[in-house]
Amino acid sequence: MAEAARRIDMIDTAPAFTAADVAALNTRYDGVATDVMLRELVTGELAGRIALVSSFGAESAVLLHLVSEIDRSVPLVFTNTQKMFGETLAYRDALSEQLGFTDLRVYRPDPAALATKDGTGLRWSYDPDGCCEIRKVEPLARALAPFDAWISGRKGFQAKTRTALPRFELDETDGYGRLKINPLASWTKPELDAYFVEHKLPPHPLVEQGYLSIGCQPCTSKVRPGEDPRAGRWRGWDKIECGIHVSELPGEEPAF
């Protein structure tokens, strides 16, 4: 009997999601309640393929609570840039413990990259884009490598570049078609505040001091009356995003 032909091993290099997939999801979940949408995805087609990314910032508790009510074993990713407020690190530990997450994953900058590209630790003061790339963008890329999708906490009201923020986006920052989900894209500030009250969620300790959007300590300042919530980020620089997210305004260049 002739020996059966050996099956050739093939490596699937196709993207996990395409632009058409993303468009279909935006249509499919248009008008669907946030908690219903998250439950269907996290426990259904994206089970085991998705991570929740959080900065543990001013309003992060809302999204964290929503996901914790569905599945507390979802990997929770935090990038510690090693320039964070001590209050943020303490808040991360207390809140993730309170909500019962069982898989908190902390990623830090590569020590070799820091040694060669930011040996003084002052790159933020003359090249904030480069600093973000080393300390946040690259670590997050490593964190998300095992996943086909991730959940972001961005909200449309936070800045003019986010007003057209969709629920679903195609994330191709590392050349891979990964799905990015923005469950709170259409939520307003009053809705977030009401959720905090309803579920008795602890606020970030820096909020009452006037920090309405909280990132790394050197590049975060208090927000003045009348400013948008992200005005305190990279004040004085022509910079509005860390590089993980890109601009949402049509025709505008990505904000790295």
TrEMBL record:
The active site is at 242 (nucleophile). It is found in: Cytoplasm. Residues 50-221 form the Phosphoadenosine phosphosulphate reductase domain. Coiled coil: none annotated. Its main location: cytoplasm. Keywords: Cytoplasm, Iron, Iron-sulfur, Metal-binding, Oxidoreductase. [4Fe-4S] cluster binds at residues 131-132, 216, 219. Binds 1 [4Fe-4S] cluster per subunit. The keyword Cytoplasm applies. Pathway: Sulfur metabolism; hydrogen sulfide biosynthesis; sulfite from sulfate. One of its GO terms (molecular function) is phosphoadenylyl-sulfate reductase (thioredoxin) activity. HAMAP family: CysH. It catalyses: [thioredoxin]-disulfide + sulfite + AMP + 2 H(+) = adenosine 5'-phosphosulfate + [thioredoxin]-dithiol. It is an enzyme of class 1 (oxidoreductase). This is Adenosine 5'-phosphosulfate reductase. Its EC number is 1.8.4.10. It comes from Sphingomonas arantia. It comes from the Bacteria. Its cofactor is [4Fe-4S] cluster. Belongs to the PAPS reductase family. CysH subfamily. Catalyzes the formation of sulfite from adenosine 5'-phosphosulfate (APS) using thioredoxin as an electron donor.
